Amino acid sequence: MPDFAVITPTFNRAALIPAALDSVLAQTVLNHGRSIEVAVVDDGSTDATAQVLERYLAGPAAALAAAAGAVTIRYIPQGRLGVVAARNTAIAQTRAPYIAFLDSDDYWRPQKLERQLALMEFDPRVGVVHTAFRYVDENGAFVDQGPQRLDNPCVGACLDVLLREFLVIFSSVLIRRSVVDAAARAEPHGQPFDSRWTNAQDYDLILRAARLCRFAYVPEPLTLYRRHGGHGAMGDLKRAYGFHSRVQIDFARRYGWEVGVDEAEARRRAAAFVLGRAQAAFWRRQMGVVRDLCDLADELGFADAAFASLRRKARRPGAAWIYRTKDALERLCGRGREGGDAHRKDGA
């Protein structure tokens, strides 16, 4: 029985997936008699992913995996069924009691699983351990100012915190299989991931896990999270944040009573989340994003005076140029502005 199952869905990331797999082979838990099984589910890649994976299944890389301490890597091709099906398939094809999620464009520091396992073994009530992270580009160069979310509030019994915002980087998650199985049994679909939530299936699972266990956190940037073109970019924020909001509201409708959050309160929180993202986009002078998020607020029934004000500003002719000119003048006068936003590949 392997100790860890690493779940890696992939689609057209032949250039990036070696870094992910190499980071698994470098895990320090392998120096202490632990073993890892990796399930790479290929969601219909049309690039050289299959050829790249061959060297991890046979040849020098496979020998390295064996020498590293019982690492087995399985390549599971599927049709273009989506990331939800890929993750569900990978979990069903593995057996280990601890499940780690690793997107094929992200990678880990060598101590990641060792640090997380120590917290799991210290407190049997802990069912999810996540870590701080850093942003990197396609070449692995840092594109941030330092470690991200060192003071993450998502620890202990954190369902109420998560019903405000998803504060967990999914490639940093280690979760007990027993928690995943219990979360799946509680749903009519009986699966770890719900096919309704294409862009926020990870948020949905973490919310369901938070009903069942406590969370722990490693405040070290042990997860390296890619910012890059294509699949790693922020993408369609209207779609992504729409999924995020719908997951919040749907979960509160079904389980929010457990922490005193009814559907109305969940809608208020989701509206605050979208408004915060729209305001951050405004301060970055991304007027197209502002307009999209105001449209999303209309679709979700969140629209109010705050959204209307943002929409008016974003619709002004030449708005981005006008505000950037204003910003430049303020900088010349020694005055700055604040504003920012979190980033997630899947948008939620």
Describe this structure in words.
Strand 1, helix 1 and strand 2 form a beta-alpha-beta unit. The protein is 43% helix and 16% strand. It has 2 domains: 229 residues, Spore Coat Polysaccharide Biosynthesis Protein SpsA, Chain A (Alpha-Beta Complex); 96 residues, no CATH class. It has an 8-stranded mixed β-sheet. Helix 8 packs parallel to helix 9, helix 9 runs antiparallel to helix 10 and helix 10 packs antiparallel against helix 11. It contains 13 helices and 8 strands. About 3% of the residues have low confidence. The protein starts with a strand and ends in a 16-residue tail after the last helix. The protein is of the alpha/beta class. The relative contact order is 0.12.
Shape: globular
Radius of gyration: 21 Å
Q: Would you identify the CATH architecture of the largest domain?
A: Alpha-Beta Complex
Instruction: Name the structural class.
Output: alpha/beta
Question: Can you count the beta strands?
Answer: 8
Low-pLDDT runs? 230-234, 338-344
CATH class of the largest domain: Alpha Beta
Q: What is the overall pLDDT average?
A: 91
Q: What order do the strands of the largest sheet run in, or round the barrel if closed?
A: 3-2-1-4-7-6-8-5
**Separation of the first and last Cα atoms:** 34 Å
